[in-house]
Design a protein that fits this description.
CATH topology of one domain: L-arginine/glycine Amidinotransferase, Chain A
CATH class of one domain: Alpha Beta
Number of helices: 18
Strand order of the largest sheet: 2-1-15
Distance between the termini: 40 Å
Oligomer: single chain
Strand content: 15-25%
Length: 442
C-alpha cells in the first residue's frame, strides 16, 4: 500500500501581531511592537501551500484558532462584557491581552507529535497534541488543537488521538518542532528522532534561555505511540545552541527520508548520534553536517537555514525549500550556492518569501505539521482539510476580504478587531465545514 508525506500547514490567523511573547526566540524579540500585516502573512502562507501543490505534493490545512481567547482572560479575573474585558486587560495587563490575541497556532510544527502507522505496534497513526507550557500564549492552543486533530483525522480504525501530556515542567512538550523521522521508505518502519533540551541528572543545560522539550516528555510520547522496537531514538540538543537562539531543534536541523541536514553544533553528542543512526538505517543514510566554519550558529538563526522544508518530490528529487532570508545572509548564501554540487543528495534549493512569519520567529518548517499517510488513511482524512485549487482560491478570497493589512499592539484593545476576527472565522468554519468545532470556542 502506497504512502505519502502530507504537509498540514497552519493558516495564519487575522490577529497575527508582533508582541514579542516568545523568550528565547530572537526574531520574535527583535520585532516586538512593530506593526504586522496579517493579510500579507496569510497570503504568503497560502502561496507556500500552493507551491507545494505545484510540485506534486499533497497539501493539507489547519485553520486558525479562535482569537481573542476571552475565556482565558475571564479565567484570569477580567469580567463584564467582551468590550469591558478587552479594555481592562489592555489597561492592566497588556501582555496577557497580547497572549490571548496571539496567532501563534499558525506554526503547526508545534501542534503535535505524529507517528505513522508503519512505526506503531497497533498499525495506526498516533497523534499527541503538544502542551506548550513554556509560554502562556501557546499553552492556550492545546485544547483547540486536540479537537481540531480529532475532526481532521476522525476514523478510529486508522487514527489514535491522545490528550496532551500533563501540563507541568517535567513533561514540557513543543511537538514536532523537536521530532523528525528517517526511513528507507515511507511505507517501512523508520527511526523517529526525539530531541530534548534538558534531562534529569545532567549538568548539560542551557544557561540563558530555557530548554522547552524534556527527555521525559519524549519518552512518554514514544510509549503512548506504541513505537516498535528500534523506532525511537532520544538525542539531546546542544545547550550552547539553545543559548544562541535555537529554541527548537527545527531551527538547527531538518530530516526527511534518508537525509538529515543539520549544523555541526546542533546536538550534544553528534558522533554517538551518527553512529546509532548509521547502525539503524544502513549505508544509504545521508548525514549532511554543516560546519561552523561555513555557517555559524548565529547565521543559521538569522537566516533560518535549517527551518527549511526538506522535500522528496514524486520524481524522487530531493529539494530544500528555504526562506528568502537565506539569500540575505552572505555565508548562508555562499553555502547554498555549493550545496547541490557536493554530493549531499539535495538536488535543488528553492527559496520562498515568508517574511511576515519569519519576523515573528517561524519559517517554512514551522508552518507545517508532517503526517505520513497510506492510501487508506489519506482517504479517511476529512476532505475539506485537504487543499485543492478551488479551495485554495476560496481561501485567498476569504483572506482578501477579512484581514487587515496593518495591525499594531494598540489595535488589540479595539473591540472591533475581536468582532472582525469572529466574523471571519465563522465564515471560514462554513467554508471548511467546521461549524461544530468552532461553535464552543467563538
Amino acid at each position: 500500500m502506497g504512502a505519502r508525506e502530507v504537509n498540514f500547514d497552519g493558516l495564519v490567523g487575522p490577529t497575527h501581531n508582533y508582541a514579542g511573547l516568545s523568550y528565547g526566540n530572537r526574531a520574535s524579540s527583535q520585532h516586538r511592537h512593530q506593526a504586522s500585516n496579517p493579510k500579507e502573512a496569510a497570503l504568503q502562507g497560502l502561496l507556500k501551500m500552493s507551491r507545494l501543490m505545484e510540485l506534486g505534493l499533497t497539501q493539507g490545512i489547519l485553520p486558525p484558532h479562535p482569537r481573542p481567547d476571552l475565556k482565558a482572560l475571564r479565567q484570569l479575573g477580567f469580567c463584564g462584557s467582551d468590550q469591558r474585558v478587552l479594555e481592562e486587560a489592555a489597561s492592566d495587563a497588556p501582555e496577557l491581552l497580547a497572549g490571548c490575541y496571539s496567532a501563534s497556532a499558525m506554526w503547526a510544527a508545534n501542534a503535535a507529535t505524529v507517528s505513522p502507522s508503519a512505526d506503531s505496534a497497533d498499525g495506526r497513526v498516533h497523534f499527541s497534541p503538544a502542551n506548550l507550557i513554556s509560554n502562556f500564549h501557546r499553552s492556550l492552543e492545546a485544547a483547540f488543537t486536540a479537537e481540531l486533530l480529532k475532526t481532521t483525522f476522525p476514523d478510529p480504525d486508522y487514527f489514535v488521538h491522545h490528550p496532551p501530556l500533563p501540563a507541568c515542567a517535567r513533561f514540557a512538550d513543543e511537538g514536532a518542532a523537536n521530532h523528525t523521522r528517517l526511513a528507507t521508505s515511507l511505507e517501512s518502519p523508520g527511526v523517529q528522532l526525539f530531541v530534548h533540551g534538558s534531562q534529569p541528572g545532567t549538568m548539560r543545560k542551557p544557561q540563558h534561555y530555557p530548554a522547552r522539550q524534556t527527555l521525559e516528555a519524549n519518552l512518554a510520547l514514544a510509549r503512548r505511540h506504541r513505537l516498535k522496537k528500534g523506532c525511537a531514538f532520544f538525542v539531546q540538543q546542544n545547550p550552547q545552541a539553545i543559548d544562541q537562539g535555537v529554541f527548537h531543534n527545527d531551527v538547527i536541523a531538518v530530516g526527511n527520508g534518508m537525509s538529515l541536514f543539520y549544523h555541526e553544533q546542533a546536538f550534544a553528542e553528534p558522533e554517538a548520534m551518527k553512529s546509532n543512526l548509521e547502525d539503524a538505517l544502513g549505508t544509504g543514510l545521508r548525514m549532511i553536517e554543516v560546519p561552523q566554519s561555513r555557517v555559524s550558529v548565529e547565521d543559521a538563526v538569522r537566516s533560518y537555514l535549517f527551518n527549511s522544508q526538506l522535500l522528496t518530490l514524486p520524481s524522487g528529487e530531493c529539494r530544500l525549500l528555504a526562506p528568502t532570508e537565506c539569500l540575505d545572509v552572505e555565508p548562508v548564501r555562499r553555502y547554498l550556492d555549493t550545496l547541490t554540487a557536493t554530493g549531499t543528495g539535495i538536488d535543488r534549493v528553492e527559496t520562498i518569501n515568508l517574511r511576515q512569519s519569519m519576523a515573528n520567529g517561524g519559517g517554512p518548517a514551522c508552518l507545517r505539521l508532517r503526517v505520513i499517510l497510506n492510501d487508506r488513511e489519506l482517504a479517511a482524512v476529512k476532505p475539506e482539510s485537504l487543499l485543492t485549487k478551488t479551495r485554495l482560491a476560496t481561501l485567498v478570497d476569504w483572506v482578501e476580504r477579512h484581514y487587515r493589512d496593518r495591525l499594531t499592539l494598540m489595535d488589540l484593545a479595539d473591540p472591533q478587531l475581536a468582532r472582525e476576527s469572529k466574523t471571519a472565522l465563522e465564515e471560514l468554519a462554513r467554508i471548511l465545514k467546521l461549524e461544530s468545532l468552532y461553535a464552543p470556542f467563538l
